[in-house]
Amino acid sequence: MVRFRYVNQTMMNHPIHIHGLWQYLDIGAGAYNPKKHVINVRPGTTAVVDVPADAVGEWAFHCHLLYHMDTGMFRKLIVEAPDRE
Asked: CA angle 77-69-35, nearest 5°?
């Protein structure tokens, strides 16, 4: 499990999406936190998500607004299989 903290210091919404993986929005409900594909990070807010790294591969990690992707809010997230001993 990987935890991300999205901090939006702008005056715009940022709908954040990770291809191939679910995001569990931490609202303090434990096992009942919402399971989402896209997390909308509202202006001036912080969102915390837990992401099970259970799908090996290279995944797009980006803001869903096209002009935000074009200006750099698009990255690659790599999930590797755990080392076995």
From this structure: 55
